[in-house]
Amino acid sequence: MKFTEVQHIFFDLDHTLWDFDKNSGLAFSSIFEKNSIAVELEVFLEKYTPINANYWKLYREDKVTKADLRYGRLKETFDSLEINVSDDQIDRLAIDYIEHLPNHNHLLEGTIEILDYLHPRYKLHIITNGFKEVQHRKMESSGILKYFNSITTSEDVGVKKPHRQIFEVALKNAAARVEESIMIGDNLEADVMGAQNFGMPAILYNYYRQEIQGDFHQVLKMKDLTKYF
């Protein structure tokens, strides 16, 4: 089906356009070398990835703070690997990670192609739960900032997706109406259900190719968005 009434397309950033997993791995490689942390990167990431995902879920649900997330995901990973890293080292690593993360600019496959396709036809926007201090830098360093008319972060609004208020503020920032807007993101709960509960249609970019229960619009590759627009 085609979304013929849509004029504004809202994208999530991490795991949707920006290759978080690859860029995150490169950032960890840099800061482990800088801080003389002796751990094999693949072994670390195998433990870290699900721990980080869980902390982000807790963060969306306001069960942990930003500081808790940044410290806890590292502390829990090192503990699970039985690697002794002091709290001071973890705090330094957490700071270095945020500083180094936007230095890497890999995008997910098909990102530039789909943005080039959509940009002349629609007004494009970002809604992200990512940390405000790095999201703009990620977009600038990866060369995609120029495609977007507005960027709404959860820290600007004070609530996170799937809370309806972040969608309300994003529409206001974009000067858009809900009936002419659509959300695209990788997280079923935060992006897709959050938008739908607000009254905005949504498309799941099924980045992890998960088995999804329910009737949702979804794509497995960015280029497949062309069937909707």
TrEMBL record:
Annotated InterPro entries: HAD-like_sf, HAD-SF_hydro_IA, HAD-SF_hydro_IA_YjjG/PynA, HAD_2, HAD_sf, PGP-like_dom2, Pyrimidine_5'-ntase_YjjG
EC supergroup of this enzyme: hydrolase
Assigned keywords, A-Z: Hydrolase
Sequence intervals crossing the membrane: none
Gene3D superfamilies according to UniProt: HAD superfamily/HAD-like, Putative phosphatase, domain 2
Pfam families, sorted: HAD_2
GO molecular function terms listed in the Swiss-Prot or TrEMBL record: 5'-nucleotidase activity
NCBIfam families: HAD-SF-IA-v1, YjjG_YfnB
Name of the protein described by the UniProt record: YjjG family noncanonical pyrimidine nucleotidase
Record lineage: Bacteria, Pseudomonadati, Bacteroidota, Flavobacteriia, Flavobacteriales
